[in-house]
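Mods, move this if it's the wrong board.
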Amino acid sequence: MNNSKTVKKSVAVIIAVVIAVVMAATSVICVALTSNQSTGNTRYLKDAKSVVTEFVNNEAYNEYAYSDGLFAKANIVSECVNELTTPEAGETISKSLGLNNFIVTDPDGNIINATEQEKVGKSIYDFDNTKDFKTVLKGITYKTTSEPKAVEGESGVYNVMACVTRSVGGIVIIDIDTDTYTAVTGEKLADECKGDTIIAKDGKIVSSSFDLDGANELSSLGVTDSMLKAKDFTLTVNDNKYTLSAENVEGYTVISGTVKEDSGFNYIYGAVVPAIAFAVMIVLAIVVFSAVSKVKEEIK
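Not the wrong board. Structure tokens:
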């Protein structure tokens, strides 16, 4: 009888130990999976932060280099084009500099040469003769173009205009279509990041590797301050769920992460691991009780 009680106690202890071990193993696996997901976000965010930091550190230089190059092209036109320059030569110069259009005037504002020859002989003060340029500048007159002005056109292409004075009097205006202006605006920054990334400033989206379907502000995506302050958060964009982390870098809000794998991580975490643990417990219980039965038989 005493032997039977001892066996029962031993069995209870064994079962308790087995259950504890299985539950501990389950917890370790789940924590490891959670940690792996969090580590992925941290890695992507760290990479995105380094991209933005480099952009900020070189922002002034990029803007200067771009402006300097743009005005250099305007100055080349100023030196190389006059009233005697043939249309063919003007077209060659325009193509070699990557210009869309140019206008050259005399001191009185009369157009003496242009890529569009029908404008030659007309006055720059007549809006109809310079409306293409002024449209680019959204109504700003040519006299105010001491710095390049840019507006975004179709497909992210920037129309940029610069104006310089001629040494013999008059001015030169150039208009250039270019995507290199994105080096100044930072529009392509997110494409340089390893994770799915959104970069914003003052709530307005500067760059994104997501298809935002026209959204240009974080609020339009449903991103709130509490989400940005959290360690990580889930965001749905175009029916795709992303797990993301955010941090502020030099005035820019950097958000980065990856697609949330509901069919992978969450399934393993919420269903597969517990199911395996439960199955192991049942198998061990059967083995233990079989052993107990055998011991009882031997005692008898």
